Protein 1
Amino acid sequence: MDLTAIVFYLFSIVTVGAAAIMVFSKNIVHSAFALMFSLAGIAVLYVLLYADFIAATQLLVYVGGILILILFGLMLTEQAVTQKFKAVTVNMLPASLLAAVTTVLLVYAYATTSWQMVMPEERSETVYDLGILLMSDYILPFIIAGVLLLIAIVGAILMSTRLTAIKNEEQ
Amino acid sequence: MVQTLKKSWTTFKTIFTGMGVTMRHLLQPSVTLRYPEERDELPSGARSKLFVHIDDCIGCKLCERACPVNCIAIETVQATKDVDLGKTSTGNPKRFWITTFNIDMSKCMYCDMCVPPCPTECISMVPEYEYSEYDRNNLLFQFSELSADKVTEVKEKAEKEQEEKQRKKKEAARKKKAQKADQTSKAKQKNSEG
Amino acid sequence: MALLIFATLPLLLIVGYALFAIWLERKVSAHIQDRLGPMRVGGWHGWAQTIADMLKLIQKEDIIPTNASRFLFKSAPFVLFAASYAAFSVIPFSSAYIGSSINIGVFYLLAVTSLLTLSVIMGAWASNNKWSLLGGMRTAAQMVSYEVPTIMSVLSVLVVAGSLNLMTISEMQTGNDILGFLPNWLIFQNPFLIVAFIIFFISIVAESHRVPFDLPESESELVAGFQTEYSGMRWGIFMLAEYADMLLLSLLGAVLFFGGWASPFGSYLSGPVWGFIWFMLKGLLFVFVMMWMRWTLPRYRVDQLMEICWTILIPVSFINFVLIALWEMTF
Amino acid sequence: MELMITPWLAEPGLVHFLIVSALLLSLGLMAVLSRRNVIMVLMGVELILNSANINLIAFSRYTSLSLEGQMIALFVIIIAAAEAAVALAIVLNMYSRFNTVHLDEIDSLKG
């Protein structure tokens, strides 16, 4: 086994294990931190797939942004400030059945398909090519994504100001 | 907008003023001393530990009486006639053995009232302030230099002399009485004769 | 094996630097207050004081609160330190040493340092203590907010430099050609970069939570913020990570604005060893300024902190970014 | 059997990454279906998005998709960020109105 294989197995175990802890943990904040380890593991998998820029973006956006938002959401909804909080699960049987069936089907499909593979391109960097692509072929999605983010920010701010307005009315 | 710019300008200016002040203090020598190695000179007349030149003490007990907290304890024994205790450095003759001269520094409140009354200037406050102790009893300073044997000897002597004196006194008194009685009897005789 | 030695070099540097910086902090604070500071341990000006303190911390009992979430509580300091140590791998210490000369250097650094926020929340929540939680939430809010002006000012440097690789950025700043005597540092190449540098410096002070933005651990109101429940070597690692973070951001500022390992005298006094010395001097200068500021300025309030970020720094950094881009296009 | 599996395990290729992503997808599905807490459901959605991203990037490395796959993954990340911001604002609103974050207790259409 070479180093790549060792790193791959190590971090896929971390990723999947942390995801499992996230799903089955009783404490919802533990779930959130398990998600952090899972996302960081996925970033390492991206590096193994020669996608260094995406890996850094994954860390910056998911771990540094979305996860902190989620944690803030947890703390602000007063569910997580105490250790005693118990997570409630419903539909355990159908959910696990569905998940198991999905896994089996997908793995079967992946394993039996004969993929049209090409020899992996040895790239030293992706940033330059990604930038060229972003500014040429993908310029429209890029602008739309920017507008979408702007709208999302404005919407989120508007909603949270309405939230304070509602609270003030109540008082 | 103008307001904001002005505010920002004031912010920067005041920050730099403050940083200038701290930089000046960074460069100037420190005002503290590394205590056990370096220390300030005490001012003259600083009140601290009491000290007694026992050789100069004449046993007048003025300091004991002056002390408001009774931290000085003196016991004296009068010297017998056959010993000459000498003179103090100020020229006063010494007449008492100082058998105890204890100062309890744990009681002392540093009022300095014992120092001025001393006629021979033998009690004084010395510039020493590091005499903390683990045991409170160690703060009881004994200045008397007489050994226990000497003290008993001196006491016995003094008692003997006292007895002698008393005996003499008594004798004298008896003699006087006898004389008086003699005189009166003689006078009576004269009267009866006369 | 050689790789392992190569990888532990920055660790030695960080530990040595942290010992020195903590000593320096105490000396600077003492001298600013007209005191002397530690003088006894180790002879000359008490240089061994922090080593003694570290030995004491190692011996101390490691206390974990009964109701703490044990795994998270134990791992938080290590995640924090790992995040800030991972970021050191892209810092070019001299023209001969860089951990990994990857093409997305600055981006990677910013991405990895965003883990710091999470590990602080981790430790804060796991302590199960209200001071810790308040401090942790404040830290998270502060670091997330100040990441925006940091990234904007870094981006405006990247517009001028045209590369994300910190080694390339350092290399292009060697020599002194501007006006005949000024070194080719980026801050002299574009007048708007001075504004960008001021914004960058304010943001890194806030990101490494130093005074006047030390709300996460403001002693007088929150005991010690997120590290309230920590003791012994775990607390020591928090301290180490904090100082490492300070050095990391200072060195980043040195690379981005002041030429990294480039000598200020052109080719005179350059070379790998001198480069390392110049680089550390530049970084330590920023660290010293942060210490100097700590003993000058009072602390901001939480709402003031947020107001400075969102109403002044972020708009100014955006406008400045556009101006820098325009300047680059015209000249 | 052993002879076949060992070299397959020793060299991680496309299928290995796809299997990891399949596992993540089913775990995300599980979280979405079985938890009552809105934020937990959101975390499940993030996991599903990530499993899709692993697929995209794996394809971009091992097939002729080249960098296009990474490009799409980048847009997925952007959209996930926008989604998280809006979703959490909605959750906070919901909490202030219904005083709960359990999905099955939020059943009235009028606020």
Protein 2
Amino acid sequence: MDSSLAWFDAILTLTLVVVALRVLFAQDLFQAIVLFIVFGLLLSLAWCRLGAVDVALAEAAIGAGLTGALFLNTLATTRRHGDQAPPAETIDRKGAWVDDKLPTLRPRPSTPWTGRLAFGLVAGSVTAWMAAVVVPLAVSSDAPRIAIDEAMLRSGVTNPVTAVLLNFRAYDTLLEVAVLMLAVLTVSSLTAGSARVSKALPSGPVLTSFVRLILPVVVMVAVYVLWSGTKAPGGAFQAAALLGAGGVLLLVTDTQSPSCARYLRRVLLVAGLAVFLLVGLGGMLGAGRFLEYPPAWAGVLITLVETVLTVSIALVLVMLFVGTSPTGAEGSARASDETPGATPLVSRERTS
Amino acid sequence: MTPTLNYALTGVVLFSVGLSGLFFCAHLLRKILSVNMAGSGVFLVFVALARRQPDVPPDPVPQALVLTGIVVAVSATAVALALFRRLTHEPAEEPHG
Amino acid sequence: MNVLILGVAFFLLVNVVAGLVRVWRGPTALDRMLASQLFGTTGTAILLLLAEGLSNPALRDVALVFALLAPIATVVFVRRWPLSSSANGGSFHEHE
Amino acid sequence: MPVTHADACLVWPIVAPLATALAAFVLGGRWSTRLGVAVVPIVVAATAVVTWRVWHHGPQTYSLGNWPAPLGIELHADGLSCAMLLMSACIGAVVSVYSVGYFEGSTTASRGQPQKDTGAQFWPLWLMLWSALHALFLSADIFNLYVTLELLTLAAIGLVVLTGTRAAVEAALRYLLAALAGSLLYLAGVALMYGAHGTLDIASLGRSVTADASLQAALLLMMVGLMLKTALFPLHFWLPPAHGSAPAPVSALLSGLVVKGSFYILLRLWFDVFPQEFTRPLTLLPAVLGAAAILWGSMQALVADRLKMLVAYSTVAQLGYLFLVFGLARPGSDTGFAAWSAVVLFALSHACAKGALFLAAGTILHVAGHDRIRDLPAVSRRLPTTFFAIGVASVGLMGLPPTAAFVAKWTLLRVALGGGHIGLAVVIVLGGLLAAAYLFRVLAAAFTQPGVVDTNVSYRKVPRWMEYSTLGLALVSLLLGLASYPVIELLRIGSPWSPPIVQEAAP
Amino acid sequence: MSTNDLVSCVSLVLGAFFFLAGTMGMLRFPDVYTRLHALTKADNLGLGLLVFGLALQAESWLAVAKLFLVWGLVMLASTTCCHLVAQAAWQAGISPWSRRDGQ
């Protein structure tokens, strides 16, 4: 049993490294991106082997699902210029720095052997140096860690990872949600792109009915993951990633997607962070400290925060996808009005 | 070779490969991919070191940190991709637009 | 029993690594996409086996997420990739 | 433990701008400006309260969620954090006032799309940046510092691309990739430190670290990462385009405040966490690179043809001075404190002077539509206040006698000569001369009669407070010299050189 | 070894065999249309047998339900994806392989 697991680990890690190298050196970018998706799936298996199931869930949903979709989408937009689509090299030239001060190699379809040699030397020496440090750490039986057992009793939840994320280190999580907000702000300010009609495959009845069938399951599983997060692996981020992925599915099919008013969307985007802040400040008012939950209320408050966070983060993830999308048929209406306080062209003309 | 050692070493390799890729690959998309892989490498080291004692459940703190890190990474990636898209779209606008 | 389950998991991993060759070789984008789909399914199977073999039922949830999200890449791809693209590599057509 | 509400003041500099950013985002439009201005006095007051408490009661520690250090995250304020907070509050307030005028009616049309209200986008981003800065200066947890670094970077990126030009987008992408590499190196260091010592809290790390290989590796990784983020020569390649192509108030923020964030972390880790036997062999590396940065940045500034690029390269040069601290400040010795506090004082002074210069450059760009140095004489007649502000800020930047930069450089020179670092002393002097040389290129414009008055160029009107706020910031950089004694006393509180009574206050 | 375990073993081994067949097909078949067959048919059957084998070992009814839900989802997903891929291939003008033009 142990030997087959050891072999499993060996093959898995070896494949991870080979796939990573291939992502960097595969001649065409599409292959690199498909391999990157595969990399995410492999990594998710690795998290499972390390017993980090919460991380595995997030990686499966965000790493392999959403990030892959983001990359595919972006690559597709760079080839969207009609039939005179640029071959990979021209994209290279365009994509590379123009006033080239970075130590980049000449843009070529494949890295020349000198480049590979330099790459190998640098990567190899960094690996050797860091391995010399990490190996003693990894084999030492003395593993200092932060003691949480006693505090778990007052944390309001039984899943230790959720306790760390939403109670002991809730402040990290608060700032992390702010990071997501910032990403949305930046991405949506960049989205005013060209509207090009997609020449991709139309979504036929099969895709439409597939989406219709699978979306309720996605929502159901997301609710389950959120609900079980307090006592088993799962939680707000994993649930949000699932919902976000469901939203992406809805976006890329031609089905009528439930649209909501611009204002409401903005409120929903900030709701997670706002509720989190309010709960934190509430802890302060109740003769306590910022982000302190009274032990009796901890479970309820954490669930409340997680629920609102799930909705907000899911929306954020969908918006991030929209931001890297071609602003074509479904994109333009959603994306261009996203900038806060954007004034429609028409009404400006009327006033002037 | 214990799983901890195996995965921690893989993390180190991925980190170095990703970091070198960031500096040596010319194409911007590949640079963005490299950053993601280097990040995964660091996360692997984090979590692998969290389960050094096989008979004790793994330390939850690094797992929580890595979850935070994954979300930060996806935000940064989305921003980088939006910038990249803007950059590759721009020149095509002038001759055709 | 567990020996068999973990053995099968290992076998599937080897299998899927062999399947990666199709992502390598293409020749068309669709082949690569198809191979990654195979990867998703096999990954799901491996997770289900590990859940039983390591007696960690939480891994079934990961398998569930795998199963739900594996088609995302393919759907995004076919809906966003221009059909007439003549660019190499990501092309629908084999190029030499 | 009795809960005291007084130490909750540490939370407000972080929460106030963050909450306002959310409100500004939701309400949008004109409300974002109003809210942005309204929160300025609150933030300034919160900062003042924190400083007051630190001044009177010593370093303050606040356990978020009431989970004490190794388990939870703590906020920590000592003299250094307070100085940084005051710098951030001061520059933030001025930039806010300036931005009201700068972004007024600045809707940029982007390629036939509906016009974008850049101002409404500016405020949420800037308020979040402000919040991130304060979170960074107050954090006492190495992983939380990573999150604040990322928050800072993403906010900065969002601000750089506000103009939406191709140059800005390209600069932003370059900046983002460099910053991500920097934070990953830092995070790798965090992973090693947690793996070896099982804690993330700076104070407990400082107590528990032992000199071993993993710590040395962590130090190197973190140092390189943070140097990259602080744009130390030769890792500065991303800075000039980003700072040069961003909107003026943003450039002021980036040059004045954002690069100081990663420098602050390095300063803190170097003196509070890592034992001397590790840092000692490495002292010369940052110091020599700093010296090289002074020379290289100044040379580039001498040949720059645009004002904003000149100021941006000047930042590369001036950041070099900051890194001299690692070569000159020895823990334990009294000259160590002198050099350390001098460098922090220099950072404060640089932030004000550089901020003023960027704001002035922004005003010129706003009015004339260009910032070419050889065409500045034609502009100078129209903007006497702004050019006066440039003059004052230049005095602050060159380090002429009454300014804080003078006090700082003089102290550094004394310590360098006392420690036998003749080379560094020469560079300190030379850097001052070079700064004078490139700044006179700009100042000359103010005293030169325009040869040809360009009648074709239509000049835009400029709101008064844009000019006055710039001048105000420039004057602060000048007056800081007079206040340098209290600032140095403030820095002593909780510094590695302070008497050890402080440790007992926070058990 | 109980009958339960025996059936489970046989089912698992058979399932693994179908995965092997799927991979072989993926690697050996000549064009994208034929590879579709390799993927869907073998994969779904393979996963089905594995799920059946594992269901006999599962500790609770909830686990069994989850197993079959996963199987159902994978079938649904791979059916749809194969349809989409085939449609895309057809619309892009890839002609199916026939014995004449192969070798």
Protein 3
Amino acid sequence: MNLPAAEWYDLRDLNGISRLITEWVADWGPDWLASILTGVIGALGVLAIIGPTLLILIWLERKVIARMQARIGPNRVGPVGLLQPVADAVKLILKEELAPRAADKWVFFLPPVLIFVPAILIWGVLPFGPNMSVADLEMGVLFLVAISGVNVLVVFMAGWAQNNKYALFGAMRVIAMSISYEIPVVLSLLALVFFTGTLSVNGIVLWQQANDVVLFLIFPMSALMFLFGSTAELNRTPADISEAESEIVAGYHTEYSGMRFGLFYAVELANTLAISAFFATFFLGGWWLWGLDQWVPSWLILLAKTGLMYFVFIWLRGTLPRLRLDQLMSFCWKFFVPVGLVFLAVAATQRTLLIELGWDPAVALPIYAVINWGIAGAGVAIYARTAASPAQRLPSRPVMARGRLGGLRAARELADAGSGD
Amino acid sequence: MSDVGFHLAFWSLSALTIGGALMIIVSRNLIHAVIFLILSFIGVAGLFITLSADFLALVQILVYVGAIAVLMLFAILLTPRAARDNEESLMRYPAMILMGLVIAAGVFVALETDWGPMREGAIGTQAKIIGESLINQYVLPFEIGAVMLTAALVGAIALARQDDEDLPIHTASLIEEGVLPPPDGDAADAPAGPGDDS
Amino acid sequence: MTSGTPTGVTPGAAEGGFGPNEPVVVNLGPQHPSTHGVFRLKATLDGERVIDADMIIGYLHRSMEKLAEERTFTQNIPFTDRIDYLAAMSNNLAYCLAVEKLCGIEVPPRAQAIRILFAELQRLASHAMANGTFANDCGAWQTPLFHMFRERERILDMFEMTCGARLTTNYMRIGGVAFDLPPELLPALRSFLDDLPGKIEEYRDLLLGNEILVARSRDVGVIDAEGAVNASLAGPVLRATGVPWDIRKADPYSGYEAFDFDIPVGRNGDCYDRFLVRMEEVRQSVQILEQLIDNIPGGAWLAELPLHLRPPEGEAYARVESPRGELGFYVVSDGGPTPYRFHCRAPSLINLTALREMTIGGTLADAIVTLGSIDIVVGEIDR
Amino acid sequence: MTISLEEYLIVGAILFAIGLYIALSKRNAIGVLMGVELMLNAVNLTLVAFSRFTDTGVALSTQVFVVFIIAVAAAEVAVGLALAMVVYRNRQTVSLDRINLLRW
Amino acid sequence: MTSILDATALADRLGAACPGAVAAVAPGELRLHREHLIDAVRFLRDDPESDLVFLSGLTAVDRETHFDVVVHLQSLDHNHLLTVKVEADHDEPVVPSLTALYRGAHLQEREVFDLMGIRFEGHPDLRRMFLWDGFPGYPLRKDFLGMPGQLKAGLPGFPHESGDNAWPVPGTGPRPGGAPIVPGGSP
């Protein structure tokens, strides 16, 4: 559904502003200036959205986690602590920036800057509205996957250059994990691409709009894979092993101090926000919400869904312990990859049936949803039964000595009695 | 896109590509060399975009930057005792002559050949065309490519896998000492070392 | 032992030396987020696997055993607070028991009951800390710790209203306790005891039912019963291997024989069992406190003692079940006003005997979890 | 004047030559692999340039060819690096000068 | 309730199994000769009647003429306790190590070595534990203040202060057995 070029003050289609500007520039200037201007406007727009959002989200994350931890959270700077992120940023900027003497200077200085490149680029293909994305690429999904792969390299550079073992551990872990978890993420997106028949991010939203359904209902397993794979790529719990603070201090950014650390931190949050937005776009309908987008600015709908997903990420972080590297790996390769392949086949089959047999989507999609939820549930159940180690199913109560006391002999008696229970 | 923007893009990307490649020769550190290689790859991806081959540009970034470069970094880190420098052997001078010859020949051929009629416009929806030709016209090479990738995967795993006798030297000595359980044994059954505390 | 293994190869990471054939030595500590104090674990790694572990301690050494020889028996009580600053009451109690044994002092029944009350409250507080930090070491981002701190806070408040201090209480005295219970303590304790069982069930649901926590701690840092007894482990670490040994039952002091409680033991001596045993011990402590709260006898809370205590020549070894295990004080007197020798059998230190065996062969992450599950207090290790 | 096929071909030729030089002159096996990758990239660039300027566009045959080259390059790098690892494990070096023994 | 072992009866059986090991008997306490320490303690550990499998504590007391190494042995199954004492010379204190029998003795022997200066023969890893390697003397000895560092009682001065009371600066002190610190020698 293409809205007509609206008035510039109509918030439903911010694209109108940039269109006005480019048309105005095209009147007098060369067209390459116009394309550069649109690019700049798009980048500024993205920054204008994620910058303030980030500040609010830092506050939100601290506040929500504080509530989960039976604390109050920041409440001193500004009303209800809202200015706390600003104070943090100021503090970080004022701090001394140290570099280890043995660090590889250039490779050490570059990553905090470079890591912003994929973090900003990734927003380029996100549709904030029907025609509201910086670049509505024909291959937006592929772009997303390719760009998020670059992140790994920057993190590796950061981890390697510090000449710090914790950092190198973090770098090695992040590479191993990101490479592994890219596969489930790609598989989950591929299932969507197969099913909707488009590589464009906006195309997937439009498909959901045309069929009046969110893809989360049809592909729950893909959603789970995307969510969990993203936590692994974003280094958030339960997969934050690359900066596991109790093991390797801060992982790949151990030696970064001051605002350099602040940049890593900001990018981590920005990436989380971006992945939340992409999850909302792929699986929750993006800017579309059953016709509500006619009345409310579409980017507000997207932001609301993004906030919901961001809350899920905060929730995960506040509640879950961390998995070990080998456990994460085996979970990826033994569960996600096979299940992802199964769902790839399922998506392809269902798409073919839908097109070849000409079924009515209104009838077919609910059936598909039921089937896919069934397969996903069965997969999870089978994995939980077979792959989980038998030790994990031991009872979660200790043996009670019941008056026995003593050393090895009593221990043996207790064990015998306990095994008889 | 107009000429100016196009020229700007082409020349800067060419400089990036070739400069990155030259820096691989110059840089003394293997890890720096890989980083410059990545720069070169990204330049090539940009050149692909100027050739309106968007799909290939993304595949280039995905495969070369995201996978091959990372594999190389991994391999460098996993061969720690090997020399880290990126030195050149005595083949340098013949290779340099050969490089000059190849450049000369390439430039000569490029400039002197009549390439026939040039097509002006770019082709859209490349992903669709490439995808369809892959499963229609080129389905056999496609399948062979898939089999080859699988074979390479299996082969690489088989090559790089460590056998038990390849365990690091002092892991083996610790197993002998009884501190470590044997590779297939149960950790709880390992006999305790004589002084197991510190 | 460590000198026999080739741990000398510690190449700088960027220079070389990180791979399947190279040992990498990683220092966990003295400043590290997971060491619970200034404790240093030098782990030699093969990839992610720990192939050797050496601990380096003494950063917090204050030579209390020497200092105590210069102070009178009563003046030494504050030192015991600082030995294990997370279980000051237990340490006070153990030292006072040792001196009382040396002098043959009878403690009034009210003082005995108060001592048990505070020892058990201290156990609750210490186990809350131990379980919270253990979950932290497993990577739970502070949440369980802060929830446990919520309960610990109420206990510390009770300490404060009784003796004015929260951590280093200095509350027990030779022959009794320093102050009588304040009138507001028992209502506070009662409301605390009313809330706690529900909270414990909540923690059980949240933590023990958590697949990730189970996966992280099951079959990690295993030690069997024979090894544990041979290595003199004590407390929850020993009981997790299945040995039902608790000083409160085996060698009852201060009137513990009158209380009905049970010893929880584990099955396979892994980190999860240690965690489980501590969780269950919290419930048993609540049970003891519930029996105690209505039956605190009246009377004096401090025995009549000479102002300048000069125990007869001799020696005494008294021990209690501190939250970390068998905490013993060995006091030798030469008849003078100060101890001739003052020695503390520190469970935190001795429980570390098996650390190397438990961590070798696991991954680095396992080593952290194992260290967390032993529940060390560096003040007690170094003294 | 627009950028035409020739410019791309020249860039491709230079890139190929540099790759060739690296592949021939570097001591380190991983360095040699880098050279090979550069050469493959140069070929890809040339092919894409031909595709842009001369392909009929019906099946985009040259671009499909590039896809195959990229697949082969990925496989080649995986196997090549695995080989380097094996050599390293047995000989503690990846320097090609030192890998002159025909058995190990 | 933990019972105290009848040391007299135990000494008789120990004397039969390991003649000449017992030096003196007191209630709940055996004083052993250090030449027979290992054999005697092994007997006490393995004998099913005494079954002293748990080394509860190991420490030492400086008696000025000699050192008493005090070992508290415990049976978990029988729930009884025995104190074993061994004498060591004051000038050249050497005692056989119990680590081969009880791994629990490992850290405690290191601690005693560190603070008391008693060498445990056969200990696999006898290093200083709390104090740094160059620390002069052994602080828990009664004559510590008269030991090589020539430290005086009372509050010590800071390293930069000259005078007899200056603490040795870490790393500049002599190795144990080496030359004494020169009084007043500041870095």
